[in-house]
Fold this protein.
Amino acid sequence: MLDQAKPSNLLDIRSVCRSFPKGSGEELLVLEKVDLTIHSGEIVGLLGRSGSGKSTLLRIIAGLIAPTSGDAKCRGEAIVGPPNGVAMVFQSFALFPWLTVLQNVELGLEALGIDSTERRTRALAAIDLIGLDGFESAYPKELSGGMRQRVGFARAVVVHPNILLMDEPFGSLDAQLRTRMHAELLRLWQETGSTFVFVTHDLHEAITLADRVVVMDHGQIVDTGSHSELVKRCDLYRRLCHFEYRESA
């Protein structure tokens, strides 16, 4: 896991608030005075039930939305638009319906100016990684929800990002494939040393993947800790996430 001897602050979130206008003209406060530091090379899980603000926080880190107040920085610079080296796996897949699986995965590489031969090689390897070998020419409408989610994951990892952000990336996968993707994600992290930040409401997934789990509720960070610390406070996490943790035999 992360070498704690020489932490390098990659992402700094300070006193961040985010609100959205309601139909009545009032403001709905989704994040309230959130403080979070993420170090280079960490895997951080944002854990909480629906509506806790975790996806909104992830989008602020991604530069997709700005905080209403407070500061969000990446590598010491204010986040204004997506930072360099960041890729995101969306919960809604965000695939282009008129492009094939291969073309969707190649898209990010094309934007980086990668030549066609390398684009195809890397895209095919990513498609094989997610278990969709043979579906390169298929269109999104021909795939199941779980398959489309895997294509979104492949499109993100194929660009070899420094920071990979994931919004419940495994939610549509069956248990067997989810376990495989967990293992592949950890392998990718070990090989690249990239920083991973993912959103989940699955307690088991959080403690399986993350160096550090950040627990959110009602727009605030209410607790944070490592795997071992989290297990000692299971009652809190069960209450917040409505999931029960059973330690493996």
